[in-house]
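**Archive record**
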Amino acid sequence: MARVLLEHLTKHFEAPAGRLVKAVEDVSLTIEHGELLVIAGPSGCGKTTTLRLIAGLENPTAGTIAMDGNVVNQVPPGRRDVAMVFQHYALYPDMTASENIAFGLRLRKCPPPEIDQRVREAAHMLELNDCLARRPASLSGGQRQRVALARALARRPAVFLLDEPLSNLDLPMRARMRTELARLHSRLKVTMVYVTHDQIEAMTLGHRIAVMREGTLQQVAEPLTVYNRPANLFVAGFFGSPPMNFFKGTITHVNGGLVFQVQTPFGQGASDGLKLEMHPLAGISDCVGRELIMGLRPESISEASPASQAGLPNLVQGVIETVETLGPETYLHVRSGDDVFAARTTPGSLAAPNRPMTVAFDMRAAHFFDPASGNRIGT
């Protein structure tokens, strides 16, 4: 395994009419020995380009890539001691699974007995023993993906690079493969860089998550930190399903306390909106009178039954617009005046469209952001 260091890594592509596309812009990142780092973000954010730069499949416009202290910018891909698993498997259709797994080893002129041993070990680890004599056309999507993983595994590289390897699988197979990948990494303790746009994969697989947007790093942190303490509006909105609710408003003093007065629903027109009592939050008291964006996740807005309403602060009356039933949990989209927000309730709730409902806002879980920069305010 290896420690990978990216310093001010930049990649620009030339588009028609001489316009430059900034695919990766000034990215500095350290991937530790044995770490499984996930690079997450929407399509076109630069995550795959970053992976290809590490692999040597693209040359950086600026910046350096180092592995275990050695700069590898000029080292060709075949000598970087990395193995890459692609989104589309990249298996040879006229070769058996065994031959596909062994292909990279044959190119490196490994002795045949060693090739056989490595193929058997990789196949056993990924439960492919019964598939080795079959060609890709006769394998399921999950089996093909495991063959691609086994081919990389048999190489025994210092760094594994995985480019959205599960995106072509159905949901049950994706869940199983996530478990297999986590188990595999725990067993091998190798350095892995995993690219995905899927927040579930990012949250469940990564030791840390590097969130990218438009070629730049937005936040690098452990999964729960990214979820519970997003660095900016983009990260807050990208992680979470349904996404975080956003409200634009102002903090004011009322009766010796602080109240967040919603002025406009986020991105919509004017509204004399909600008034929400705030809990003391470090770094927020200095923002009285200043326009802010407040974020609150759906799980922090809950149905308040008549029996539980007594003494609860921040009760809001609304009407249910839509209901999303997901088995263990149900999400409601509620309208209160001009404000529309998502809330979570229990599966046994009697929630139905057009039904009035009282919900409670847990302002202890509120996040605040600067509307100009998008950056988080407070601790």
